[in-house]
Design goal:
4 strands; Alpha-Beta Plaits; four-stranded antiparallel β-sheet; 98 residues; 32% helix; alpha+beta
C-alpha cells in the first residue's frame, strides 16, 4: 500500500517563497521527493465570526509506503507555528501505483 499525502501551505506575505523552499527541502529529505503545485495556487474561503476570510495555498504532495501519523502531527504543528496559522490541512489517501 502506498499513500499520497497532501499539504495545503498558505502563501503568507513576502516570505511565501522562503516557506515553500523550506517545506520542499524538509519533505525531500524525509521522503526522497516532493511535488509542489505552485503555478495553480488554490484559493480558500471560510467564515470566521461572520466575516469571510480567504487565502491562497500551494498544494504540496509526497508519496510514501508508510504513513507515520505521529511524524505528520508533529510536522503539522511545526508548520502551523512557523506560519502563524490556526490550521493547516494535511490529508492522506491510500493509492495504488500503476
Amino acid at each position: 500500500m502506498s499513500y499520497l499525502v497532501e499539504i495545503l501551505v498558505p502563501l503568507t506575505g513576502d516570505d511565501g517563497g522562503m516557506v515553500l523552499k523550506r517545506v520542499q527541502d524538509e519533505l525531500t529529505r524525509a521522503f526522497g521527493g516532493v511535488t509542489m503545485h505552485v503555478n495553480a495556487p488554490a484559493e480558500g474561503l471560510w467564515k470566521d465570526e461572520g466575516d469571510v476570510d480567504h487565502d491562497k495555498s500551494v498544494v504540496v504532495e509526497v508519496m510514501t509506503e508508510e504513513l507515520s501519523r505521529q511524524w505528520w502531527v508533529t510536522y503539522k504543528r511545526d508548520v502551523k507555528l512557523r506560519l502563524g496559522q490556526d490550521e493547516i490541512v494535511i490529508r492522506a489517501a491510500a493509492i495504488e501505483r500503476l
